Amino acid sequence: MRASTLPDEPGTAPDPRPERRPLDPDLFAVSPARDPRFRVVDRWLECENLSANDPLHHVEFTHRQMNEEMNGLECSARCLADFPEADWELRMGFARQCWDEARHVRMFRRRLEGLGGHVGQFPVLNFQYRIIARAETLVGRLTIQNRTFEAGGLDAVSWVVREARNAGDPELADFFESQLADEILHVRFANAWLRRTIREHPRELMEMGKAMTRAAKAFKEVMGKEGTDGIFYPTDGASRVEAGFTEEEVALDAELATRNAPRDGDGPAFR
Ligand SMILES: [Fe+2]
Ligand SMILES: [Fe+2]
147 alpha carbon to ligand 1 midpoint, in Å? Predict the structure, then answer.
């Protein structure tokens, strides 16, 4: 199932191809289990990164997204299991998130099958789970999962909603808009808890910084230049404010996002 991390044969030179090198275990937790229908890979380069013109592009995107939602569910479930002493309110936030992400997995599966695809059709990455679950503290996990990955997802999903509406596909726009409503709540409960924690224990800011540094390093290892170059989603200020970011944080994010924008101004297409 996981061909990419097989060790090299004894006595042979390590494979120099980046996609064949094992991921740094210091930065990644063990991959979550998948049944035999799935082929799990470690790096973006090993996925089928079909071009926007490929007839299977949307099928592959939907398959990938279905597995990413599963990662969201698995991360929240791990937080519930790993931090049983956490505030009740926070644990309720994780439990609700598990429920939402499970619904998202099923939504994406229905859409995948509606497009003629099937579970296991394409290789999948579990990088979100592997990066997030590697963080040892709640501050670290919430910083990476909710405040970074899912906050980035708000921009991406909002962009897809707008594109679908402009393309005259209200059904698809509604599909993603319902997901967006849930994702805003996932970012919001984490932002609220993190702000309270930092107010009470300012040293936790160091933990946030440390978690972000490790996550950025790990993300780079998985995605490589190929998986991130030219990827740009305009910051969705309205969703981010609703999700508990301040106006200053939104402005800073918009500035950073613009720096990564492709020169021709084209946004990505379901990437
Ligand atoms: Fe989700
Ligand atoms: Fe989420």
Answer: 13
pLDDT of the chain, 271 residues: tens digit per residue: 444 444 455 556 666 666 667 899 999 999 999 999 999 999 999 999 999 999 999 999 999 999 999 999 999 999 999 999 999 999 999 999 999 999 999 999 999 999 999 999 999 999 999 999 999 999 999 999 999 999 999 999 999 999 999 999 999 999 999 999 999 999 999 999 999 999 999 999 999 999 999 999 999 999 998 888 777 789 999 999 999 999 999 999 898 877 766 655 444 444 4
Residue position matching structure tokens 């500035």: 255
Identify whether 241 is part of a domain.
yes
117 in a domain, yes or no?
yes
**Burial category of 6 from C-beta neighbours within 10 Å (exposed 0-12, middle 13-18, buried 19 and up):** exposed
Structure tokens at 131: 């990066």
The range of the structural domain enclosing residue 164 comes to 26-259
**Ligand 2 geometric centre to CA of 244 (Å):** 15
Distance 21 CA to ligand 2 centre (A): 30
Name the domain count of the chain: 1
> Which of 91, 257, 102 is CA-nearest to residue 179?
102
* Predicted TM-score of the model (pTM): 0.88
